[in-house]
Amino acid sequence: MSDPLIIVGSGMAGLGLARQVRARDARRTITLITADSGADYSKPLLSTGFAKGMPPERLAMRSPIDVADALQVTMRTHTRVDTIDPRTQTLAIGAERLPYGELVLATGAAPSAPFTVSDEVRDRVFTINDLDDYRRFHGVLSHHGGAVRVAIIGAGLVGCEFADDLLAGGHRVALVAPQQTPLARLLPPPLGQVLGAALSKSGADLRLGRSLAQLQRDDEALSLVLDDGEVLSADLVLIATGLSPRTALADTAGLAVSEAGIQTDRYLATAQPGIHALGDCACVAGLNAMYVQPLQASAKALAATLTGTPTPVAYGAWPVLVKTPSCPVVALPPRQAPVRWRIEGEGDDLSALAEDENGYLQGFALTGACVRRKVELARVAPPLLP
Ligand code: FAD
């Protein structure tokens, strides 16, 4: 009988791995431990729920009980693992000591905010990074009723997707970010401008090139003071200023971690024998991609490794499909800043090709009708992790 496997985290990475291991080994003892409610849901759908009027219950595909039944795993929900002791191969959960045979960390990434939120406004300020967060935000939004004024801080993928989705759901949105154009990490400025114009046309009040200086209560509303002194009024604030890999637990085991995540090799192995990591918390051979296709490939490779067939993971040239229906966007960001962006097309239909000094394609970004080029371009772009 093989060692009991404990997976910490039941997001798409942890659950995906449990599914893959179970498909290869019907008898392995598997325990999934999660700090949240443990429902099986697709995180990318969180930023599409308001347009479709989706209540949180409909985003949960299966309850933790159904997951445990279907996969024949033990599921411990609302349970936070505090520390790992690799010497005794135990996890600490409060006063409990839980032995593991093999351990996988799938602890994801947590929202990070560049400012602290005071108690005075805390009940009106949200992040949405899991189904429980969505449930809380959805509850308050529904309680307000009608068109709620939401100020979104941050114009990256999460901020832009929620902006478009909330507008489509009938709400009013202000988008505040220090960058001059939205999605600045994925899109060169001409394409960012196309997205910005589409969001404006849908009703977004763009405050780009601006930062939040102060956030305070103003009677029933919130008052946002921007760095140029302008004051915006909103009912709720959604913070979308980025995610940081959760590495605190790995730290307690003395694993190598950096800002990019828990360091692993191509086998998703950490430096500590018997401990692996995957998903948003893991930096695999120097890369933390933080999206679904890489974590699915990781789950498949790691399941093979854990069931006796050591398998390194490889990532293809997998573009990200940004869910902003008012302006279709697809991007495959280059791993290094390109020597130049070659822009083709006109109007809202643009292709930006990231090229190296020899004119080879390193990545791309597409808007409007040009998103059709994604397959053709992905064929010639280099894989993320060959
Ligand atoms: P998570 O889902 O964050 O899971 C982490 C798990 O670890 C949770 O169960 C948590 O409770 C648990 N945990 C953490 N610490 C502990 C502890 N100490 N003890 C116990 N449990 C712990 N990607 C795409 O490819 N396409 C998209 O369209 C897309 N859209 C997105 C939209 C939004 C709004 C967001 C936020 C992300 C989106 N992404 C998208 C990214 C993608 O969803 C993530 O890469 C993926 O879901 C990460 O899964 P994960 O399992 O690694 O982490």
UniProtKB/TrEMBL annotation:
Is Ion transport included in the keywords of this UniProt record? no
Kinase: is it a keyword of this entry? no
Protein name listed in UniProt: FAD-dependent oxidoreductase
Keywords (A to Z) from UniProt:
Cytoplasm, FAD, Flavoprotein, NAD, Oxidoreductase
Q: Which domain of life is it from?
A: Bacteria
Name the cofactor(s): FAD
Q: Which organism is it from?
A: Chromohalobacter moromii
Residue stretches making up the FAD/NAD(P)-binding domain: 5-289
Residues folding into a coiled coil are none
A Pfam family reported for this protein in Swiss-Prot or TrEMBL:
Rbx_binding
GO molecular function terms attached to this record:
oxidoreductase activity
Q: Give the PANTHER family listed for this entry.
A: NITRITE REDUCTASE [NAD(P)H], PYRIDINE NUCLEOTIDE-DISULFIDE OXIDOREDUCTASE DOMAIN-CONTAINING
Q: InterPro entries given for it?
A: FAD-bd_OxRdtase, FAD/NAD-bd_sf, FAD/NAD-binding_dom, Rbx-bd
Q: Which family does the record claim for this protein?
A: Belongs to the FAD-dependent oxidoreductase family.
Record localization: Cytoplasm
GO cellular component terms attached to this protein's record: cytoplasm
Where is the Rubredoxin binding domain positioned along the sequence?
A: 312-379
